Structure formats: C-alpha cells, structure tokens
Q: What sequence folds into this?
C-alpha cells in the first residue's frame, strides 16, 4: 500500500481551493480569447491534481494505468478536432 | 483402461453442461456466471434475432421483385429496412463474435478459468436481452415501428411520430451491454494470462478481440449520449440538433458516425481474428508476420476511428473536412491489406486441408476484398457524389459485413463447433451449404453494385422499370441465400442431435482450447497451464 | 471453482468504465465547443443569467467532498472504521448539498421562464437557446451522476458499518471513490465553461 499521509490530501484540497479562487477572479478580467485558454488550463491542472492524488494515479504501477488518461485525451482531441475541420471551415 | 498394469475406472471429467451449481433447470443457464454458458446464451439469442432480421430482408426483397408490386405500404417498407438495420447491426453483427466466441474462448486461449468479472458478464447478457425486448416493444407501442433508417438522422427522427424514443432507448441499453463486455475483455486479457503467456504468445484471435474491446469502451458512449439527446429533444425540446433552435443536424451526423464507423471495426476485427486462427491450423504452418497482424489490429482500431466523415461527404460538411476524411479512409485500407497479404503468405507452401473452416476463411478473404475495394472506390470524393445513397453502398456494406464478418462468423462456428458441443457436423452438407450460400450471396449482392452505379437509390420502396432485371435477379439471390442458410443451420442442428463424438483436437490446433476436453469442463483446466511456446507451433 | 480476489483487476475494470463515462460527456463537450465557436457572443450573453456565486459554492462543495472521499479511504486502510464512515457520510452530505444548490438554481431559472422550449427562451437568439439547451443537458446529466454516486456511496456506508468493507477488503470503496472523483472532475470543467465565460 502506498504510504500517503493524509496531510497530502489536505494540501491537494488547499491547492484546488486556491486554483478555484484564481480561476474565478480571472473570469472577472477581460482577456478576450486568452480567458478561455487560461480557464481551461486551470481546470486541467485541478483535474490533474484530483487524478494524481485523490485517485492515486501517481502511485499506480503499470503501463496501462499510465496510458489511460493520455489515450482518452487523444481520443477526445481527435473527435473534437476533426469535427472542427468541418465546423470551422464551412 | 490400465495404468502401470493396474485396472483403473475411467472417470470422465464432467463437461460444463453437466456441472451442477446453485441453480437448476433453465436458471442454471440464465443465472450462470460461467463464460461458456454465457457465450452459448448469446449464441442462441443472436441466431434468433438474426433469423428475424433475415426474414425482414426477405420481405424487403420480395417487395422489390418488380416495379409497382403492391406487397406492402411504403410506411411498412420503411419500418422493415429500419428494423433490419437495427437488428442486424446492434443485435447481431456488433455483439456476435466478441460475446459468443470472445466469451467462450478468450479465457481458455489465455489459460484462465473465466473472465475477470463473471457477474458483470451475466449482467451484459441481461442488458442485451433487455435492449432487444425494448426494441421489439417499440414495434407495437407509441407511434409504431421506427421508419428513420437505423441511422436515426435528425431532424426527421425528431419529428416523425413513430416510436423513436423507445427504439433509441433500446439501442442505448444495448450500448451499455457492449461497453461492459469491452471492459471485461480488456481486463481479462491484462490480468488473467497464464504463466508464460506473454503478449506475443497470445493467439491472434485474442489480439483481435482485445483491439475490438477498446473500441467498444471508447466509441460506444458517443452514440449513447447522441441517442439520449434525441430523447431529450423529443420530450423536452432541448434543441441541440434542431435548426429552428440554432442546432446543426450535421453535428448529429458527426456524433452518430463517430461511433458507427468504429462500430464496423468492432464487427470486422474479431472476424479477422478468427481467420488468423483458422489459416495456420489448416495450412499446418506458423502464421506469416505475427507481429504485423497483431499491430495491424491496433492500427485498424485507431485509424478506423478517424474516418467517420466519409459517411458525410454530401451532407454539407466543409470541403476541407471531406478531403481529410477521404485521405484517412484510404490510409485505413493499409493495415487491412497487410492482414490479407499475411494470410495469403501463410498459405503459400503450407500443407493445406480444405476443410469447412478453411473454406469459409478463404471465402472471407475473397468477399472482404471485394467489400474493401468497393469501399475505397466510394471513399474517393468525386465518385462519392454519385454513389452516396445508392445501392452501390448497400452492396458494399453487405459484402464487407455479411461477406466479411458473416463468413468469418460461420468459419468460427465450423472451427469451434466440435470444441463447444463435443460433436462433429457433416462435412459434405457443410460444403453444400457453403456453395448455395456463396452463390446466393453473390446473386443477391453483386447486382446491387451495378444498380447503384446506374443510379438506383437505397431505401426506396419502388423504382422505375429500367432497374427491374437487376432487382429481380437480386431477389432470386435472396431466396438462394436463405436456402443456403437453412441448410447450414439444419446441418449444425443435426450435428447437435446425433453428430459423431468429436475428439479433443480434431483439427490439430496448437492453441490452448485444443488441449482440453470437448466440451470443456466447468473450470476449463485441471491445472493452469504453463505456456512455453507460441500459438502456431505445429509439432 | 475457487473465487479469486484481484484488486488490481477490479481497479482496472473501474478505470476502463470511467473512460467510457468521460467519452459520454465528451460528446456533449464536442457540441459545446462547436456551438460556442459558432455563437461566441450569444454564449457570453446567456452566461450572465447564471449565478456565479452559487456555481463557485458548488465547485468548493464538490472539491471538499472529494477530500472527504479520499480521507474515508485513507482511514479504512488504517482500520479506523469510525473515521472512515464519518468521512464517507460527509462526502454524501456534500453531494446532497451540491444537488440542493443545483435544485435552487434550476428552479430559479425555470421560474424566470428560462427552460427548454419555454416561450421566453425561444424569443431569444439562437445561440442563447443553444447555451441553455447545453446547460440543462450537461448539468442535468452531471447531476444524475451525482445522484447515482450518492446512492453507491450510501451502500458503501452501510457495508462499512456492517464490517463487510474493512482494512483487508476495501476495493469496492476505492472504486466508488474513483467514480466520485470523476464526477468532481467533470464539474471542474463544467463550472468555467458555463459560469466563467462572461
């Protein structure tokens, strides 16, 4: 069993709360196109924290676990990306 | 029999049929979590639904025997082609090989006693049956049987008064069954391989099923959500596909085909896996290019998930998207061709025994090649303008689905029948069945390629007189095909009743299922084997 | 036939199922991206109708529920059934709180006449109608998953109290936790896409 201290979870939680605060205040600023990029990037970081620590992905061994998230991200990117070759170029 | 001079009583190990468990009678089957029993439950359910769909096809072809033939009203014809598609695609071809032969043989071929999640396996079958019941209920309730085509395109599917919601809900439930089966097959392959069964000693059938299972997990949810949105739109007016509310019907098509194109790879990859099993055994020669075939399964699953837009060349999607999808469509032919070349190379200088499994495997290669090449032709943009929505497409997909997966499925039955049932069928009748089926198949479907080329649209209940001759030939082909199917299944049924006892290894196969009794005992192996060689090492 | 306990296999199965859930929502994210691309201004306008305070509150509620979930598993591994059950109860409580806030938001919108097919909504621009279609579908599907998660966690709570989940056998709790965290992750994306794009 991996030796995660419960302190780690508290820190992750704090990180998530702080990132939430940042993302909410970012939304107040008007940065145009950049807003959505930053806001999604922060969401990705938050998800990464949940995946790695709360869901223990950081501590899992084996190729399969390491590949699961990259695979699903690749699939989503391709589905949305190829659809955009239609949507954005009509 | 004697052992060391001492007379021993022979205690044959009870087969999985004879095993006594917690339940009795029919419950011993429909509540069983044993992968072999579940495989057989699927086998008989799928054959039942297949027969219904073949009957619908028979009726459709009968209507089209002559122009103006008033066998049925147009609405009925629309319902028939819709249901023929729904049943064949979602109830038969997509599940068939993974749930019957994947369930029955994947655990045995990797040296395991069962799947990773036996209870989820049973749940998958119950979801399958529930989905089937829901689809059949939709025939008699709401506004009556669906008439949208199995593709349920918006906005028509949003407006037509027939029972779209129940039908799509049935398909949604079937999708859940498929996803769970995929989860089970992937986990089983990763976790339950016997000692020494490394990835590159796995039978190629396992590689085929494994690649398929990933597609089941990743692609099926997309059609799931799409069908949910159809229901939401019909019931609550959520307008994501309705142009009147700013929705885009072409986005429906994207979402629909994002699953439904990979779905055809769910159909064909397991069949290709069967061919990769059969050819080495009946050529008594190690398969040529094992790794190439294994990786090509992954390549087909991956690249095949990028080509869905080739169903939409005339939908109004952008030219850029069409060009990209056409290019990707041509690319996906490459790994399929690699398989065909490797199978043929395996046969070369092999010691060939043309027994029924090989007969069907060779026919697969022939018919699949025709289907694949016609696919390439319609994948060319300019040509597609003329061929989309015509009988050419109907001919193409029947060659590749029925000619490919269907004949692969029959090859699997002829190959594994003795193992599953402990009986052997009559070879001569099997060959006659093949001949009649093959002739009927080509008489039925080849004219469609010509009809489509000449402009005959698909899903039409009637046609102008110039198309009469080819339609008549095609209809007669349907009768011959059905006769072939009847002979094939009659032969198998007779074998079940009074076929000769089959030995443990009638074909001389080297994969693990041939090292255990026919039919297998409940827990497959007395002792989990330690694997020391590859799957195609013959003596 | 011996029954085998393969914890890693169980976990792999759960993860694979979660991948299918991600793709399920993925279809909706595809629609969101497409329609937002086509109607950027309308989406901005429509987002003003949403209550950012409640959205942020809900985000914090789910994040905290995830913390409690992780702690519940932490404590069962240490054999501390009481604390594990307590944190699991807290997780469920926060889940219900989330649903409560969601209910308030939805009823407020519906009272204002902003719901699918409402005359008031249909009078607005097409992009705004789409925004709300996606809002209701996506938060609705997400809410359904929260409800399912709460049900599963409640069953787990009973199993902990009965001792059927303990320091030697806690994979069902871990797997339920994985599901719950995924529900949190989906909201982590839904929140900015609907509430923070003004």
A:
């Amino acid at each position: 069993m991996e030796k995660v201290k419960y302190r780690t979870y508290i820190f992750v939680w704090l990180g998530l709360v702080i990132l939430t605060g940042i993302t909410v205040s970012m939304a107040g600023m008007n940065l145009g196109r950049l807003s959505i990029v930053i806001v999604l990037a922060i969401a990705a970081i938050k998800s990464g924290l949940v995946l790695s620590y709360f869901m223990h992905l950081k501590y899992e061994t084996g190729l399969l676990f390491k590949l699961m998230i990259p695979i699903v991200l690749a699939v989503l990117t391709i589905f949305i990306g190829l659809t955009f070759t239609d949507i954005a170029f009509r | 029999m004697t052992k060391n001079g001492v007379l021993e009583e022979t205690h044959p190990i009870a087969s999985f049929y004879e095993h006594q468990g917690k339940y009795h009678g029919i419950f011993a089957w429909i509540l069983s979590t044993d992968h072999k029993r579940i495989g057989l439950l699927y086998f008989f359910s799928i054959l039942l639904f297949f027969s219904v769909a073949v009957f619908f096809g028979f009726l459709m072809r009968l209507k089209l025997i002559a122009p103006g033939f008033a066998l049925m009203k147009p609405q009925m014809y629309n319902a028939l082609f819709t249901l023929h598609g729904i049943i064949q695609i979602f109830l038969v071809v997509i599940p068939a090989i993974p749930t019957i032969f994947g369930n029955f043989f994947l655990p045995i071929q990797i040296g395991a006693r069962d799947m990773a999640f036996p209870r989820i396996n049973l749940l998958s079958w119950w979801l399958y049956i529930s989905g089937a019941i829901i689809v059949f209920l939709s025939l008699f309730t709401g506004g009556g049987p669906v008439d949208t085509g199995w593709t349920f395109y918006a906005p028509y599917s949003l407006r037509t008064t027939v029972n779209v919601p129940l039908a799509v809900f049935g398909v949604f439930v079937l999708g859940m069954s498929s996803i769970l089966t995929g989860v089970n097959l992937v986990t089983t392959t990763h976790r339950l391989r016997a000692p020494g069964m490394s990835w590159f000693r796995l039978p190629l059938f396992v590689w085929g099923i494994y690649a398929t299972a990933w597609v089941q997990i990743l692609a099926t949810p997309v059609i799931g959500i799409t069908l949910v949105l159809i229901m939401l739109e019909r019931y609550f007016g959520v307008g994501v596909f309705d142009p009147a509310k700013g929705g885009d019907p072409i986005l429906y098509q994207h979402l629909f085909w994002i699953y439904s194109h990979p779905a055809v790879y769910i159909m064909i990859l397991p069949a290709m896996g069967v061919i990769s099993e059969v050819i080495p055994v009946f050529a008594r020669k190690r398969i040529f290019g094992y790794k190439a075939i294994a990786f090509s399964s992954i390549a087909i699953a991956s690249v095949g998930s990028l080509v869905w837009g080739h169903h939409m060349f005339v939908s109004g999607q952008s030219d850029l998207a069409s060009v990209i999808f056409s290019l990707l469509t041509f690319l996906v032919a490459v790994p399929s061709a690699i398989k065909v070349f490797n199978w043929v190379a395996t046969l070369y200088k092999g010691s060939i025994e043309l027994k029924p499994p090989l007969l069907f495997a060779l026919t697969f290669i022939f018919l699949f090649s025709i289907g694949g090449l016609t696919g390439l032709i319609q994948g060319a943009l300019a040509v597609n303008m003329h061929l989309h929505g015509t009988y050419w497409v109907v001919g193409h997909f029947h060659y590749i689905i029925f000619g490919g997966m269907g004949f692969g499925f029959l090859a699997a039955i002829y190959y594994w029948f003795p193992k599953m049932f402990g009986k052997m069928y009559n070879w001569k009748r099997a060959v006659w069945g093949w001949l009649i089926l093959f002739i009927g198949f080509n008489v039925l479907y080849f004219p469609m390629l010509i009809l489509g080329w000449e402009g005959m649209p698909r899903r039409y209940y009637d046609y102008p007189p110039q198309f009469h001759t080819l339609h008549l030939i095609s209809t007669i082909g349907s009768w011959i095909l059905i006769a072939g199917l009847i002979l094939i299944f009659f032969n198998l049924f007779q074998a079940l009743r009074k076929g000769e006892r089959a030995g443990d290894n009638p074909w001389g196969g080297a994969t693990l299922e041939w090292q255990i009794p026919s039919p297998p005992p409940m827990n497959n192996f007395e002792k989990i084997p330690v694997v020391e060689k590859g799957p195609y090492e013959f003596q | 036939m011996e029954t085998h306990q393969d914890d890693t296999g169980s976990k792999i199965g759960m993860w694979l199922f979660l991948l299918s859930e991600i793709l399920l929502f993925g279809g909706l994210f595809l629609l969101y991206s497409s329609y937002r691309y086509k109607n950027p201004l309308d989406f901005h306008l429509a987002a003003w109708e949403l209550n950012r305070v409640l959205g942020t509150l809900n985000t914090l509620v789910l994040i905290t529920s995830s913390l409690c979930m992780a702690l519940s598993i932490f404590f069962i591994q240490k054999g501390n059934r009481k604390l594990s059950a307590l944190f699991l109860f807290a997780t469920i409580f926060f889940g219900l709180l989330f649903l409560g806030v969601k209910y308030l938001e939805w009823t407020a919108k519906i009272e204002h006449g902003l719901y699918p097919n409402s005359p008031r909504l249909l009078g607005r621009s097409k992009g705004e109608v789409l925004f709300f279609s996606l809002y209701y579908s996506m938060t609705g599907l997400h809410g359904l998953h929260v409800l399912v998660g709460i049900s599963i966690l409640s069953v787990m709570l009973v199993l902990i109290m009965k001792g059927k989940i303990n320091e030697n056998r806690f994979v069902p709790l871990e797997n339920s936790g994985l599901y719950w965290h995924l529900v949190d992750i989906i909201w982590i994306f839904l929140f900015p896409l609907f509430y923070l794009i003004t």
User: Anything to note?
Assistant: Residues 439 and 481 of chain B are 7 Å apart (CA to CA).
